[in-house]
Amino acid sequence: MKLIVGLGNPGKKYTLTRHNIGFMFLDNYVETKNLGKFQKKFNGLYLKTKLYNQDVIFLKPQSYMNLSGIVVSDFVNYFKIDSSDIFVISDDLDLIIGNFKLKSKGSSGGHNGLKNIENMISTREYKRLKIGISNNKNLDTKDYVLSKFTKEEQEILSSLQEIVNNIIDDYFQNDFESLMSKYNSKNK
Fold first, then answer.
1. How many domains does the chain have?
2. Which of 86, 98, 125, 175 is deepest in the core (most CB within 10 A)?
3. Is 60 exceeded by the pLDDT of residue 186?
4. How far apart are the C-alpha atoms of 135 and 12, rounded to whole Å?
5. Terminal CA-to-CA distance of the chain, rounded, Å?
6. Angstrom distance (rounded) from CA 28 to CA 6
7. Could you give the CA distance from residue 160 to residue 3 in angstroms, rounded to a whole number?
């Protein structure tokens, strides 16, 4: 079983904020594919379905970013999901808006949501798609990641949605090394 996790913060006030990019792209994929409605379980919103002959769970933790790993861990344990079948979509301060990077493992890079996932599942060996939100060194990082995207930035992210949807589709059909080779070279 595959677990696709979009990271973000719950609540209307965080909609369209930089930290919620995982929710945004996961929602877009689920809506585009018309996969159904999310349900509640273990302080998360999840949707269980079958895609490309594989059982899949799409998950949006509702515990706030820095506690995302608790929710991910609950799903991993309950559904007996191997860490190699976890794919996390998150924001990344070190990438400019419009850029993304697929990684098969690695450190959290200071991202509190990823850090908590690593702590709770006791490994860095899970796949991730990091989507750029740029960085504004004039603002405190906490304030910046909770700020809303500008209209121009929203347009850039809109143009990225089809690519991210293709990445998720290809994730079910290809090995991850091929996925990284195919998509990481396409960054600006």
1. 1
2. 86
3. no
4. 23
5. 33
6. 11
7. 22
